[in-house]
Amino acid sequence: MIGKLLYHNFILVYRLGNWIRRRFTPTGILILFALIASATFGLDTRQTLAYQIFALCASLLLAAFVSIIFLRGRLELKRSLPDFGTAGQEFEYTLSVRNNGKAAQQDIVLFDELDTAYPDYQEFKNTRDSNDRHRNIFDRWIGYPRLVGIINRKRGARILPVEINTLAAGETLEKKIGMQPLRRGYLYFNQTKIAKSDPLGLFRSISNQTHRDRLLILPKRYKLPLLSLPGRRKYQHGGMNLASSVGDSQEFFSLRDYRPGDPLRAIHWRSYAKKGEPVVKEQQDEYFARYGLILDTFLETRPEFMLEDALSVAASLAVSIRDQESLLDLMFIGAQAWRFTSGRGLAGTENMLEILACVASCTTSPFSALEHLVLRHAGESSGFICIFLDWDGQRRQLVRRLRALHMPVMVIVINQTGKIETGDDDPMQGQPQSFWALEAGNIQQSLDRLPRQP
Fold first, then answer.
1. Do 42 and 150 reside in the same domain of the chain?
2. Tens of pLDDT along 386-429?
3. Where does 225-348 have alpha helices with state H?
4. 170 SS3 class
5. What is the Cα–Cα distance from 223 to 316, expressed in whole angstroms?
6. pTM (two decimals)
7. How far apart are alpha carbons 340 and 353 in whole angstroms?
8. Could you give the CA distance from residue 78 to residue 396 in angstroms, rounded to a whole number?
9. How far is Cα 333 from Cα 75, in angstroms, rounded to an integer?
């Protein structure tokens, strides 16, 4: 009961704080606090003169409230966004402002806003924040900083306000707006608030212009140690049609007569036109390296930031593996089993990052679904990189089965300690270069402590 009461009061305080910061200038906030303080200490007019300060502050604010009624202006806004952003990396975009009115506009502040969703009580109660470790006991117990953090992450980014001192009639300005993404995924722009100060500079008149946009934020990426991926090239069924020029040859092997069952795309049409009978191209067998990137999305009762760290590590690997003679298969379980392939001619690194930006945790399928997906495609792969959220029996069993197929495996485990005890029966025993244990919330520090490969 007390928790719910605190939660609803926190939401009220958060909304009120936002309203005050938007409506009042810094000077106006000072006058507002002076008004509240003088009202508190000036109740007895015979014992103190604080009521005179109250009357002065109230008069100033009342004059400011009345004067904003007469503020008019016609501004036209246009937002120009980049193609992508990256979580945790600040960038700028452009907001074009045009004054279509007949008078100059002064002391304008622009607040570009994203859609804001407030968490319900259960989400507020159950969410575990990685920043709690840096907070004092009181803040962790009360939970208001955690609520603010949840709201900010659901919103997705911090956007700095922009001030315009003077905008002449008919003038157009392009202002750079700083933005710091707090999470991956899509950010949805809602509206821009145009705030104009009263002549006293205490209170702002606010008008809204709704123009929706969206921007995809890619996962955060880390600096990885030098990777030496094991594995050899394998024959890929489908040759050039599948590999799209990745392999040992970019020319067809020979021409031969058509046989029943040959695909139409293999017909060599110029030879068909000359001979009058169908002729097909015979492709040379293709051999190239193909690595599987296994992503564990089974969060279960673990904190959400562990999955975010796993996705960032996966994105870092996808960027690091840029060998044009290899393909990378991303395998994970979402609403269904997914396998996305990137490499020359199929999809670029940007496409892989876009997919990782939209991955959600799996709550409807067991871990065995991922095991079935991986083993189904193991015969085509040169090796696997596994990113796990735990190192329990199920995950060890998957690695053990891959190694039984003589498949090179690299394992990255993300947990809250960054330490894992391995026994004699551990499938990765004696392979420190291929087994990384990373601490959730301190991924880059954990990567920096790893031994360098020779």
1. yes
2. 999 999 999 999 999 999 998 899 999 999 888 887 777 888 88
3. 239-243, 269-275, 304-320
4. coil
5. 7
6. 0.80
7. 11
8. 53
9. 48
